[in-house]
Design goal:
24% of the residues lie in helices and 25% in strands.
């Protein structure tokens, strides 16, 4: 990996601090480097302003002269009542070079941000970065697909069950896996369960980790009826396109909701928490429309596997250009 790629990956890791509080703006990370050392860094603040580049440049001040700016997303080129265009701030900053990891699909910027920086006499280049794209996955889904990125979480036994035959499900996994789930909730704009799960379990769906309670996502229920107080109703999986301002949707249960999203071809990412127990109870999924076993192959790619106490987490992403 080149030095540029390493700094972009570091900026992508920094961008995680912005999510999800930066909504409706993307969570962006920026790092200023001079003589091989970081002189300033920033990420998009709550509510979307100030942007990452503005934060880093404000911290660096005159020290930004001659530095290289690494930023996960192309600097914005449009004016806003809430702040200046980042392309203009960068152009006036005195930096010697700009490296971005992802072009901005927003038509208000879409290449013009990079062009404006170059017009100011600054060397600027686009270095495609998988780390930067991954850090912006929800934003990119909203722009390219017109909907949030959907993560489906399944906590199951070795035999693929999410509950006993009686319906008892607390707890399939152990405390480490449950804490990890809360950390994943903290990265989501919205969290959703099916109507049956809401009625049976009355889940809180909040984030119960120290210091992260304010990152509890909006609560949604998949139902054609009315949502109870404190919840919002989603009539069908396809209706996620109407979830205004939501870039990251976390689907947490139960089997009917999971099956419905898979059947609609709307799951981008799978989090499978597997406990070393056998239950012989209620399966995690129902029939989501596969006509033949051959259709099941080549759809998912493992991106991560880790041990969480006695449980195992496997993270899968949908293979590009492979519908459900």
């Amino acid at each position: 990996m080149s030095d540029d790629a390493r700094w972009l990956a570091a900026a992508a890791a920094l961008a995680a601090r912005a999510r999800p509080l930066s909504r409706p703006n993307p969570g962006v990370g920026a790092i200023l480097v001079k003589d091989g050392k970081v002189i300033a860094h920033g990420w998009t603040h709550a509510g979307g302003r100030p942007h990452a580049e503005a934060v880093a440049l404000e911290i660096a001040g005159k020290a930004a002269h001659g530095a290289t700016l690494y930023v996960t997303l192309e600097p914005c080129a449009h004016q806003s009542r809430r702040g200046p265009a980042c392309a203009d701030l960068v152009s006036a900053s005195g930096v010697a070079r700009v490296v971005i990891g992802c072009m901005d699909p927003d038509p208000r910027t879409a290449g013009s941000g990079l062009a404006r920086v170059r017009e100011a006499g600054i060397a600027a280049e686009y270095l495609p970065s998988l780390a930067c794209e991954a850090s912006l996955s929800g934003y990119l889904a909203s722009k390219h697909l017109g909907r949030p990125e959907v993560t489906l979480k399944l906590a199951m036994s070795l035999d693929g069950c999410i509950a006993m035959a009686s319906g008892e499900s607390q707890w399939i996994t152990g405390p480490e896996a449950r804490a990890h789930t809360h950390a994943m909730r903290a990265k989501a704009d919205a969290i959703l369960v099916g109507g049956g799960t809401l009625r049976a379990d009355n889940p809180r769906l909040d984030v119960r980790l120290p210091g992260l309670a304010e990152r509890s996502p909006e609560r949604w229920v998949l139902t054609r009826g009315e949502a109870p107080e404190g919840w919002r109703a989603l009539p069908s999986p396809d209706a996620i396109a109407t979830m205004e301002g939501v870039q990251y949707l976390f689907v947490e249960g139960g089997a009917k909701a999971a099956t419905a999203f898979l059947a609609a071809g709307l799951v981008d990412r799978l989090l499978i928490y597997r406990a070393p127990i056998l239950v012989g109870g209620r399966p995690a999924l129902g029939d989501f429309g596969l006509a033949a076993l051959s259709q099941a192959h080549g759809k998912w790619r493992m991106g991560e596997r880790r041990q969480l106490g006695s449980d195992t987490l496997e993270v899968y992403t949908r293979t590009p250009c492979s519908p459900e």
